[in-house]
Amino acid sequence: MQEITIKDYLSENGIRPMNKRVKVMNYLVSKRNHPTAEMIYLELVNEITGLSKTTIYNTLNLFVQEGVARALNIDSNELRYDADISQHGHFKCKECGEVFDFSLNKELLEDLRLKNFVLDDYQFSIKGVCSICLKGKSV
Ligand SMILES: [Zn+2]
Ligand SMILES: [Zn+2]
User: Fold this and answer.
1) Is residue 83 within 8 Å of 25, Cβ to Cβ?
2) How far does residue 27's CA lie from ligand 2's centre (Å)?
3) How many angstroms separate the alpha carbon of residue 96 from the centre of ligand 1?
4) Across the strands, what pairs with 78?
5) In the chain, domain spans
6) Mean pLDDT, all residues of the chain
7) Residues 6+ apart with CB under 8 A from 121
8) Span from the CA of 94 to the centroid of ligand 1 (angstroms)
9) What pLDDT was estimated at residue 3?
10) How remote is the CA of residue 109 from the centroid of ligand 2, in Å?
């Protein structure tokens, strides 16, 4: 997504596209790395003068509130953010800390005996060791 499109996207969702907000959203959609607020701050602090952690937190809260991002509590000690608001699950690697997306299709949810249920907020997460870390171990 280009920054101009991000501006439109934010506007369409009732968020005034201020520069800092556009930068944070751009970070989320381009990196797709499910960052913590801290990670976003460290990345953008050199790019935006006078950026504070509070601004990052406020921006992320606003995004979640307006439905353009999701806050993921995969671990109880940290919140991670995702601009992909489609239905999907997360796998967190306990070795590298990376968070991977996986699809959560209708059939799987029906397997979970949730057929004909209305699902509003699905935080579906699995923890383990990713294939990249497993490969590194066997070498
Ligand atoms: Zn890993
Ligand atoms: Zn995700």
Assistant:
1) yes
2) 14
3) 4
4) 75
5) 3-82, 88-138
6) 90
7) none
8) 7
9) 67
10) 17
Query: Which pLDDT value is given to residue 106?
Result: 73
Q: How far is CA 70 from CA 107, 110, 114, 121, 127, in A?
A: 23, 23, 22, 9, 19
Judge whether 63 and 81 are in contact, CB under 8 Å. yes
What pLDDT was estimated at residue 1? 64
Task: Choose the CATH number for 88-138 among 3.50.50.60, 3.40.1190.20, 3.40.190.10, 3.30.1490.190.
Answer: 3.30.1490.190
| Distance from Cα 93 to the centre of ligand 1, integer Å | 5
Q: What's residue 33's pLDDT? A: 93
Instruction: Note the CATH number of domain 3-82.
Output: 1.10.10.10
Rounded-to-integer distance, Cα 26 and Cα 7, Å? 10
Which residues of the chain carry a pLDDT beneath 70?
A: 1-3, 138-139
